[in-house]
Every structure is written in C-alpha cells, then in structure tokens.
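hi! just following up on the protien thing from before. the input was this:
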Amino acid sequence: MKITLSLIKADIGSIGGHIKPSEKVIQRVKDFVSQSKFVIDSHVFHTGDDIAILLSHTFGPDNPKIHKLAWDAFMEGTKIAKEQGLYGAGQDLLKDSFAGNVRGAGPAVAEMEFEERPAEPFLVFLADKTNPGAYNLFFYLAFADPFYNSGLILSPEIGRGFKFVIVDVKYKRGDRIIELFTPEDIYDIAVLLRETGRYSIEAIFTKEGEQCVSVSTTRLHNIAGTYTGKDDPVAIVRVQKNFPATGEVLAPFKIAPFVDGFMRGAHIGPLMPVKLNSSISYFDGPPIVSCAALCVHNGRFTEMVDVFDHPFWDFVRFKAAQKAIDIREQGFFGNAMLSMEELEYGGIVKRLEKLAPKFKIRKKRK
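and the predicted 3d structure came back as:
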C-alpha cells in the first residue's frame, strides 16, 4: 500500500512564556484533527512549546487538503490560546490566511510517500529551541559512519550507500539544493553539514531512489523578515531492513552536540534528548529533541514508544545539562552566542548601526 506520512508542527501559544502548550490547546487540536474523514490515522503530541500533528493518508506530499487540515487545527488551537492569554498565541502562523500549502507560512513540515513494507517501523523526531541543521550530525553519522552504523559494513544493501539532498537555507529566491552520495562524496557532505546555520539535510534516499528521511527546513526569519522564534525542526526516519536500524539512528544522539538556539534563538547549547511531551525550562532551553517510534500498517499507526524514556538517556541528559551550564557560564562572550551573521534579525544589529557613526578613523602617527 502506498501511503504518505505528513508531520506538521507549529508554536501556537504556551504557558508561562516558552514552556509548553496548555492541555486545552492540545486537546482542541486533537479533537479537530480526529474529526477529519479523509486521513487514515493521526497522532498529536508536543515537544517544548510546539505542537506536532502526524497524519497518514494517500494524497501524496504537499496536498492542499492535508495542509489545510493542519492549518485549521492550529488556527482552532490558537483561538483557545488567545482565550487563555497564552504567550505567543499563533506565533508560527505567519500568514493571514491559508494559501494552499503551509510551507512558507510558518509551520514546519516533513513528509514522505512510500510503498509500505510488510513491517514498516519509523521514527518521528521533534526538536525545540534550535534550527533545521541540528539534525545534520546525527543523520550524517547514522547513514554514513560505520562507527555508528555497523550495517554499512555488515549489510550489502546498506553498504551501497545513500543519496543526501542538502538545502541552502540562507538562499531566499528558491530551493537551492544539492544531491550528494555516500560513500563517494562523504567529505563534500561533511563540508556542507558542519555549517548548520546555512546547510541542512532535507532528505535521504537509497541509491535505488527509496526515501528514508525527511526533515523540515523552514527558517522563520526568512519568512517574517524578523526574529519570531527558533525554527524547531521535525523529521521522519524509516528504519530497519534496507535502512539503518533504530539503534543505529539513535546512537549519535548520545553526543548531545552544541547547536544554535537556546534563549531568544541567539545562543549555543547542547541538544538534550528528552522524553516525549517534555517542557522547556533552563534559559529557555536547553535545545531539546524527543523521539517517538511507531509502526504503520495499511496506514494505521501503532501506539507510540518513547525511545528516550530509558535509563541510558538519563546519563546523556546529565551530560547535556553539564554542557549547558558550562557554556552558559560564558554568558554573551565569544562562541556562547551566535555569529553576527546569524543575529542579523535581532536587536544587536540595531545597536551596531547606532554605534557605527561614532567610529572614527585615527590619523596615522608621524
């Protein structure tokens, strides 16, 4: 059976600042989505202050009916958020009305269409307080590095390598993408993916053309022209058989690498693997990622398994917390904050503009 998975998320209001959506808002979104007659199945969950809608259907990616369902559900949730006086009500809904697609309107979207295997396990990743490039290292290691993916040397199918589709998220006049292959282009891929503020994995395919990864690549400040919140990317990853095993995809997350985000989206912090439906706390962070494991059969989902709800990840969370404390002790100084290029939409640029006329060229000494 050929199905499409659509994962669409938005920040539409939060309790006490950027902490978590209220139960009433989440329930309103769930109720609205559940009334749909044209999707096969759905799940609604949140990470931090973002609500995500997972849908299965047969209409293919970028379908207006599916996107309008998600848009209308977020609009309904926004009404409740405004009634409750939640902070940032409708924050990620950057357009006045639905125009056929939520891409470019604020919500983050990851979608893929495929022919169901007899057993079809997949992972859903939800990140908060960071940017789309936050997944770069994890998926590079899971799909290209035998230190993390032993299947690259143990499985003939996986060992053939993969195609990476990488998008230049700084380019605003269209989708500027490049397609590179492993293992032959592995160093070129590394050169791009290290620049998480500019290049992001958008999709990964087998060399036979079967998609196994989809990542949202929306940059909110590219749409709004000003800082409106961090991009908070989502991703879908198919696993097992001719794709990496679940454990091979999850293994790199133990690194808790430093990523863009944290308070006001202007700092650097470790990406902490957290349990599903976790809230935001320390310094509007730290950047977090949760993950649900599911199977889908004839378009119907199993219940979700929280893969980071395991004693092993408690140790990783402790390590991430220590890294967060260490870099926050550096305050605004040096690498603790983003570069000026990444802060171009913030107030710090206005301060620099005011200071510019006060600079003088010192006369050369004789």
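Residues 260 and 268 are 5 Å apart (CA to CA).
Residues 2-352 form one domain.
cheers
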